[in-house]
Automatic annotation (TrEMBL):
Gene Ontology MF term list: hydrolase activity, acting on ester bonds
SUPFAM superfamilies: SGNH hydrolase
Organism: Stieleria marina
Any Pfam family the entry gives: Lipase_GDSL_2
Protein name: SGNH hydrolase-type esterase domain-containing protein
Residue ranges constituting the SGNH hydrolase-type esterase domain according to the UniProt record: 6-190
Amino acid sequence: MHQILVYGDSLSWGVIPNTRNRLAFADRWPGVLERELLRQGHLARVIEDCLNGRRTALDDPSKPGRNGLVGLEQRIEVNSPLALVMLFLGTNDFQSMHDVNAVQSARGLGSLVAAIRRAPVEPGMPIPEIMLIAPPPIQIGKAAIAAKFLNAETKSVGLNTAIRDVAVAENCQFFDAGDVTATSEVDGVHLDRDQHSILGTALAVSVAAVLSLAQR
């Protein structure tokens, strides 16, 4: 059994755009991924650790626990053995309260990679493969979250390239979600139900390749 940890934010938690409701597991991309892997014959369990508002390595001054670096090593230890950790973060780094650019956000992901690799897993358990997923480009924020993501569509330009550079430098897998889907037209930030389906199905191809290599 291959255990896969999805470490993400609301784009993976499955918030329905412009609501506080959540898609069912079968409709969220991690659930779609698990279903597709099982359909392909891979014994896989997808574990979700997805927190609304989670950043890469930044603090939210009003909500504790949103810094993705804090406690990550323990999450790796808790869920081991892991074949793969999928990091899908970056969008919340561009909330209006933060003054960061794409390169700085991607460096935050680099610090998460280091934390995963130094996590105190039990002797004989593997250090998992890591996949960095670049979020689809943020559009102009709309509806209830417009003020929260003011100018995020400008500040985040180049995030996919910056994350790809970190993936290459750190010898991680890379997937650009923007190659297969886009953010919702409803709020400009999250994913609609059909986008979750598209993303999970596309990711299954890349993840299956990683799992096949691990079996050799």
